[in-house]
User: Which sequence fits this backbone?
């Protein structure tokens, strides 16, 4: 069943059409949710909530934007709502140490450590760094670098300007670079401690 | 060629990552290890993140199962609608049923058509025409017309069970499952009508729900007959 037909039938409440739309789009929505919350149970709940909202509102879809764009906007809003609720419950110290999303430029950019990221970036440590990004940066980063959306699509999904999308992406990447370097330095300190403990033991 | 400073390069970094390649920026990167390492790091981050796309997987099946149950509970979905039928207009009974209404007891295969007629008549009596005449009487009509109708459907369900028992057990189980879903939908609609008897949309939904049950019972009875 083509997507356009499935949308038409789903707007009449057809169960098979609902399922068709779900099968077509669940992977991207689930992946987005998973990248944003890094917890499979939460990602499943968010995926279900996003589709539930979609199907409740499907009768209002007029085709002014692409269906997938509309769906992803719903999904991003569901995720951001969840993240903002969570951050409201966390300690204020964490809010203070996170960079303000609207401030201009990263806190530290050049003249940094000699350590290079080459050979040090892998899925695990990059995901850990992504987890630490503020929700707005994280959304744009996941949509652009992970899921491959263009800035004009992200602008529609996030209801922002293209310029804003580019700016948020740049800030997200710079922040990730800082976080990865901090992790590298922490690892280097641990390695030195371990090495001196070993040599101290051998004396 | 004039070169730029590291501080000036900061302003060009974002456009550089978007693909812009001014010559003076290129020249600076050729000679500045710090700025070139920043560019290299950002490109690595982008490349690693892009590879995650390939590992994307569908959500576990339980997400769909739970979602579907929720949609059914909210009455948002129903079984596949045939191409030629407009589900929004469940009004006149099926073509040809009038000729099957005889004084003698209808055969089981006609029970569904009989029920469909009953549903149509009951709601015509409690519909907007009566509302204009006497609102109090219409409200009473809406509230009372559903009770005997519901009883008729329950009676028909008991009769259908006799016939469906002759079918394949898997088919029987599936039909009973569908019946349970429709009953849930009816309960939801009845609740809405009881809470808002003046709500015509709620009444229409209840009408459609009863129609669905009547159709399902017809199917069940026909299957049982064909197995004989």
Assistant:
């Amino acid at each position: 069943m083509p997507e356009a037909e499935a949308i038409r039938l789903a707007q009449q409440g057809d169960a098979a059409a609902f399922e068709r739309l779900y099968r077509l789009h669940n992977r991207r929505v689930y992946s987005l949710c998973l990248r944003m919350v890094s917890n499979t149970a939460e990602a499943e709940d968010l995926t279900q909530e996003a589709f539930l909202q979609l199907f409740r509102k499907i009768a209002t879809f007029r085709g002014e934007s692409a269906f997938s764009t509309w769906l992803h906007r719903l999904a991003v809003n569901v995720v951001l709502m969840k993240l903002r609720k969570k951050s409201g419950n966390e300690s204020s110290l964490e809010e203070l140490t996170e960079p303000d999303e609207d401030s201009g430029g990263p806190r530290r950019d050049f003249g940094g450590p000699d350590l290079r990221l080459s050979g040090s970036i892998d899925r695990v440590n990059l995901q850990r760094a992504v987890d630490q990004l503020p929700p707005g940066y994280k959304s744009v980063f996941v949509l652009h670098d992970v899921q491959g959306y263009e800035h004009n699509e992200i602008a529609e999904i996030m209801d922002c300007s293209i310029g804003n999308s580019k700016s948020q992406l740049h800030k997200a990447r710079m922040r990730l670079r800082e976080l990865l370097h901090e992790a590298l330095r922490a690892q280097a300190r641990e390695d030195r401690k371990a090495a001196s403990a070993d040599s101290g033991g051998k004396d | 060629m004039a070169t730029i400073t590291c501080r000036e390069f900061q302003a060009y970094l974002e456009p550089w990552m978007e693909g812009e390649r001014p010559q003076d920026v290129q020249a600076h990167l050729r000679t500045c290890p710090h700025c070139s390492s920043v560019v290299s790091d950002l490109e690595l981050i982008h490349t690693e993140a892009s590879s995650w796309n390939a590992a994307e997987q569908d959500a576990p099946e339980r997400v769909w199962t739970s979602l579907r149950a929720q949609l059914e509970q909210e009455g948002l979905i129903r079984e596949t609608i045939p191409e030629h039928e407009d589900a929004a207009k469940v009004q006149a009974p099926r073509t040809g049923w009038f000729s099957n209404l005889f004084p003698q007891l209808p055969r089981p295969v006609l029970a569904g058509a009989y029920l469909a007629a009953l549903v149509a008549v009951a709601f015509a009596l409690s519909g907007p025409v009566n509302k204009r005449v006497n609102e109090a009487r219409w409200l009473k009509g809406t509230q009372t017309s559903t009770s005997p109708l519901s009883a008729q459907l329950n009676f028909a369900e008991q009769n259908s069970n006799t016939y469906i028992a002759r079918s394949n057990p898997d088919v029987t189980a599936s039909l009973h499952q569908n019946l349970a879903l429709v009953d849930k939908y009816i309960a939801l609609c009845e609740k809405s009508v009881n809470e808002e008897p003046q709500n015509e949309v709620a009444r229409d939904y209840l009408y459609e729900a009863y129609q669905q049950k009547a159709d399902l019972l017809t199917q069940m009875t026909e299957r049982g007959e064909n197995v004989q």
Observations:
- The two ends of chain B are 95 Å apart (CA to CA).
- Chain B has three domains: 1-51, 54-126, 131-227.
